[in-house]
Amino acid sequence: MRRPVIAGNWKMFKTIAESVAFVNALKPKIRGANHCDIVVAPPYTALRAVADASGLDLAVAGQDVAWEKEGAFTGDVSAPMLRDAGCSHVIIGHSERRQLHGETDERVNLKIKAALAAGLLPIVCVGESLAERESNQTKEVLEKQFSKGLGGLTPQDFSRIIIAYEPVWAIGTGRTATPEIAAESHHFLRGLVVTKISGESAESVRILYGGSVKPDNIRGLMAQEDIDGALVGGASLSAESFAAIVGYNS
Ligand code: PEP
Question: Which CATH architecture has domain 5-246?
Fold first, then answer.
């Protein structure tokens, strides 16, 4: 039985005060919700404050990580620094990093290894663009992102990886993949884990769906066997809608 994960990616939104207010508003709404892991990824500036306000109720994630521990890397934040700021998870390879900051699969791979070495759980994003989907390249793209981005990992490493399937055409567009479309890609990704890592890893790895997840579509998505949770952008910014997504099972 895979324990679901509902994760909120706040992107470049919320001051420290707004972040803490969110956590204080969310906590009473998710009291008793112990059917899933709940993770929020605030901007760097708010990590420590969110970790302190969250206590054990929420896990905290960075939105990116450097592949080196320290050094002359202006603007970067390392995995040990994320741990120090209270993070247990980190998002790696988000399509906005890939599109706007030149993130490559090779860098994703280095970042995953750095995160694992520091004891963080990487949430690794993969997904095809609209043009790639329309030209029937979805599987090829996922296979390449998986082989290069997640290459060289042992089954033991893999036991600490979370995958997020995020079709780029569904991110921030209001255009969600239907549960059936998402399920097909999730099934394909789980098959890649069987062939490239191990059958046992495939059984246990959590694969989240991301792309315009909202309170009104989460149930249909979570009903799919291979969908183990959600990575939520826009709808994770309000405590009401994020709590409603967390409560998909009620
Ligand atoms: C995301 O940022 O990972 C995301 C899925 O965004 P949204 O839910 O807004 O599409």
Answer: Alpha-Beta Barrel (3.20)
